[in-house]
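Q: A reviewer asked whether we had any structural model of the full assembly, not just the individual parts. We don't, so I'm hoping you can provide one. Inputs are below.
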Amino acid sequence: MQQQDPVKRLMEQLSQLPGIGERTSLRLVLHMLSSARESMYTLAQTLTEVADRVKECMTCAMLTTEENGCSICSSLSRDRTILCVVASIQDLMAIETTAEFRGVYHVLHGTLAPMDGIGPQDLRIPSLLTRLSNKAEAVREIILATPPTVEGEATALYLAEQMKGFGIPISRIASGVPVGGDLQYADRLTLSRSMQLRRGF
Amino acid sequence: MQQQDPVKRLMEQLSQLPGIGERTSLRLVLHMLSSARESMYTLAQTLTEVADRVKECMTCAMLTTEENGCSICSSLSRDRTILCVVASIQDLMAIETTAEFRGVYHVLHGTLAPMDGIGPQDLRIPSLLTRLSNKAEAVREIILATPPTVEGEATALYLAEQMKGFGIPISRIASGVPVGGDLQYADRLTLSRSMQLRRGF
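A: Here is a predicted structure for the entire assembly that you could use as a starting point for your response.
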C-alpha cells in the first residue's frame, strides 16, 4: 500500500483536502521544499498538536483546547442569557468579527438535509435541546442564525418548533439586500424577501 | 511569540503557502478536524519524512530521496547522451507525461531575471556547465526547454552562448499555435512566431 516516494505520498495526502487538486498539491510541496525545512517540521508539529489537543467545547460544540469549555463559554464578559445558534464554526467566526454580539453560541455543525440523510441526530441539536432544558443556564433569548438558504431556513423552522415548549423568545436573523448593495443586482428572491420584511420607518 | 491556540497557529502556517489565504486555511483546518484524526497524524508524518529525506539529485537537481542520483539519472533505460534543460520540476514532470523523451534532464530551478536579482549563480547553471565539461558524460545533444517567455528565452540565449565552446548541437523547443488550438484565439506574438518558424511541407 505505502508508496515508496514520500513526495508522491505527500502530494496524494494534500490532494485529499478540499480545493486542492493534483497541480496545487505539487506546487505546495515544491514551495515547501524550496523554503526552509524548519517550516515543514513546524507545520508537522502543529498538525500533530492540533490533532492531539483540539476537541469540541462540551457546551457549545465550538473548537477548543480547553477541558472546561471554550474561550467564549468560559468568558466572564459574555452574556449567557442570549444564545445564538449557528450552522458552522465559520459562521460563528463571521459573527464574532462584527464584535456586536456579546452572548454565547451553539454550533450545529451543519444544517438539516434529509435528502443527504442528515437528520437532527447528526447535528448538535440534541445537545442544544438538553442545554435549554437545563434550568441553570437560564437562556432568555434565542437567535437562530442558520444561513438564509433552503436548508438553513428548514433547520431554523425545525428548531423553532422543537424549542417552542421552553417558552423562550426566538428570533431569526434578518435577510434582505446587503448593506451597500445595489437593488438592480440583487437576486429576485432576496429582493422580494426584503420587500416582504419591510419595517416601519 | 508562540501563540497559545494551536488552531490559529496551524491556520497561520498554512496561510504562508502559495494560494492559501486566511479563509482557505480555516476551511482546510476545519475539514481536517472533522475527518479522522488519523489522517492528520499521517500528514504530519509524511511532511517530516519529506523534510528529512528529499534533496536535489547531485547530477540533475531533480528532487529525490536516493543518495546516488534520482530515478531518471540512475535509470538504465535513459539515454545519457541527450540532455534536456528545464526551468522547473513541474516542467520536467510535464515533459515526462508525454513519455516521448528518453534522455536525461537538468533542472535550473528558475529562469534568469536580472531585474529581480536572479543571476546564473542563483540557478543550477554552474552545475550544468560543470556537467557538460565532464568528458565522461559525453552529451551529444542539448535541448533547451525553458519556457517561451521573456525570461525563459533570455535564459535559453544565455545558456546557448555559454555552451557554444563545448561543440555540442543545441536546440530550442518549438513554440507556436498549440495543437488543437484555434488561430483566431491565438495571441499575436504566438501567431507571428508560428509564421516565422514555419517548416517546409
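A: Points you may want to mention in the reply: Chain A has a mean pLDDT of 91. The radius of gyration of chain A is 22 Å.
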